[in-house]
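REQUEST FORM: STRUCTURE PREDICTION
Request ID: SP-0412
Submitted by: Lab K.M.
Chain count: 1
Length (residues): 272
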Amino acid sequence: MEIKRTLKKVIPSPAWTLLRKTYSGFVHLPELPSAYLHPWRRESMHRLAEIKDIHKGQRAFIIGNGPSLKQTDLGKLRNEITFGLNRIYLMFPQLGFGTTYFVTVNDLVIEQTAADIASLPMPKFLSWRSHRFFPKIEPAPATFLYTTYDNPTFARDARYRLWESATVTYVTLQLAFHMGFDQVILVGVDHSGSVPGKPNTTIVSQGDDPNHFNPNYFGKGFRWQLPDFETSEIGYRLARQAYESAGRQVLDATLGGKLTIFPKVDYADMFK
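STATUS: Completed
RESULT:
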């Protein structure tokens, strides 16, 4: 890591960017045939083409999974277009309705909840890596997105590569842009947590989960990765720039959220 920082300081920025993209291309070369030619991915790209700008001029809510959801009147979202993330479905019985769309890209989450995800009735968007956790059926059990961990960028067309930025929320912001939404409002994106440790480290939960809306979200025995807020913020800044340059906006209506990248709004005001 120190060598990388040193090289970045001495190599001119344009050359560094070119080297980074070239290296990324070599790293991902072995997975490209599958990511673009596999029948499920070809089907997914066709689906993504069909929903390009399908919601032009509309607004959507991205519902995170933070504990602030317990103080948020989510009943107001019943007739809104919504994206639910990761294990948001644990809240569906209480809500009395599901989200319009469902998105998850984390390998550990998908591996441990594949059966739950497969049973969800709404359109589902999953990382292409996760296709191995599902039975080989036709049609594809979800729309698979080609996401990667490296080479920060904001994709305006979700048929191709999307950077994950260490958070499913960023992937969903790219997907929402692809679908044409003019306004995207974040709810329950608390951007905080109480478990110490190195970001992205995989740990096994030893008890109830205090960092999400449900104590069973990452309950005892669940394997999960510690959040990487710094990398997430890199992506959020890219998202804000992309939306605003296109005359669109991302707003943050999370109650008590720690994220400071997007303009803050009062949740209740969104329904006046």
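NOTES: The longest strand covers residues 59-63.
Reviewed by: T.R.
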